Amino acid sequence: MSSNVVNxxxxxxxxxxxxxxxxxxCVEVTKSYIDTSNAVNSRIIGIFPRNRPAIxxxxxxxxxxxxxxxxxxxxxxxxxxxxxxxxxNINGNxxxxxxxxxxxxxxxxxxTNGYGFIWATxxxxxxxxxxxxxxxxxxxVIDAGSPVLTSGRITLEWLSAV
Length: 162
What we know:
By secondary structure, this protein is α+β, with helices and mostly antiparallel strands. It has helices at about 20-40, 80-85, and strands at about 55-60, 65-75, 85, 100-110, 115-120, 130-135, 135-140, 150-160. Strand 4 and strand 5 form a beta hairpin.
């Protein structure tokens, strides 16, 4: 594999010759299975469930111990902005604390244009819609100059335990 490639994950080749000899065929099929499973397992799993966690496929290492991350997607409505928060319901079974969140993002529309939610601070940013996380909630900080949300979504990813 070239060292100049951006993604250095396993690449699954698209063709393979299988030998006619049964013993050699068994060896080649075993190699093929290992190549396939390694290539699949080294990719991030593209499942974004609403209100239910899914394993992302990422591996994080702390103190030489592998940790996995989970992902969950949330719908955001105008009433959520009025109340100022959504309960994320990521409970203690995942050992979650605010420091366990690894990646959080979102998007919303005003009915005409699309915009990004920013995972930021508990203070307003001029003309921006942001959010921050507590151990129980997604808390919205909407500046007065920000577009008015008609619908949106937020995705949270977190370490299962540290």
